[in-house]
Backbone:
């Protein structure tokens, strides 16, 4: 990393490219972090610094790989679950509950912990459902599709649900669990860019887009929120992360009292 000298011009070119594709707003305080991530990708691609910068500018797929190293992808099961539990309870109390499958979109789903968390709670209430889980990064989607996780990511899962919906690993998979097929079969993973892809034509009963807008500036957050608004059914729910807020954004959602970071259309 010490051999990497990123000029101000190179930094701003990189910043603008990452922003245009992912909406992630890098500031100069991220310079050393960026250099370390460039060094990591240089090792993976076996390219020199100059070769890697040229490769990065010419290859959008590599930009996504690079962005994936910059973001933390820190997730675990039943994280910030209060808003999800509220959504599940509200869906279960609807007059048509059990008569049609509820449709959920988990945007920015990372390694799959969140969509599986939602699926487990819907299944436990015997509700029919389908979940679309999307992310910009194909590498986290591969992890999500495998559905294999370290035990330490499940510390918040209630024990009865842990026994019911996970298979304990053995041999080389000791210390890991796998999501059971009865849950995995209800979750579809796809690549989707919140910034550049068109709004989905499908309509959902709830959309979760949590802990991704912390990387966005306000104009980008506003565009994403209003894009997602188009894909939610009337009276549908919109969940964001506890560290995020729609304050000062121009949007049409209504907040739900006493449930932080949860809104209704």
Residues:
């Amino acid at each position: 990393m010490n051999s990497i000298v990123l000029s101000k011009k190179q930094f701003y070119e990189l910043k603008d490219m990452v922003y245009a594709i992912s909406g992630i707003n890098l500031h100069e305080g991220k310079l050393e972090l960026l250099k370390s991530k460039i060094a990591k990708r240089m090792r993976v691609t076996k390219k020199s610094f100059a070769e890697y910068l040229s490769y990065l500018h010419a290859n959008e797929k590599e930009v996504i790989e690079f962005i994936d190293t910059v973001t933390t992808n820190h997730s675990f099961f039943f994280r910030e679950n209060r808003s999800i539990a509220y959504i599940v309870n509200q869906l279960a109390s609807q007059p048509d509950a059990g008569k049609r499958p509820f449709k959920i979109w988990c945007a920015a789903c990372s390694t799959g912990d969140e969509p599986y968390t939602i699926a487990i709670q819907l299944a436990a209430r015997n509700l029919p459902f389908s979940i679309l889980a999307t992310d910009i990064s194909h590498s986290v989607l591969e992890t999500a599709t495998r559905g294999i996780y370290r035990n330490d990511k499940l510390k918040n899962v209630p024990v009865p649900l842990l026994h019911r919906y996970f298979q304990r690993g053995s041999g080389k998979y000791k210390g890991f669990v796998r999501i059971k097929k009865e849950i995995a079969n209800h979750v579809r993973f796809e690549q989707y860019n919140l910034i550049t892809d068109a709004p989905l034509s499908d309509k959902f009963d709830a959309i979760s887009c949590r802990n991704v807008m912390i990387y966005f500036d306000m104009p980008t957050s506003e565009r994403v929120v209003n894009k997602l608004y188009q894909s939610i059914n009337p009276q549908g729910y919109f969940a964001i992360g506890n560290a995020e807020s729609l304050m000062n954004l121009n949007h049409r959602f209504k907040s739900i009292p006493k449930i932080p970071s949860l809104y209704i259309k």
In short: Residues 38 and 53 are 9 Å apart (CA to CA). The two ends are 48 Å apart (CA to CA). The first strand starts at residue 102 and ends at 107.
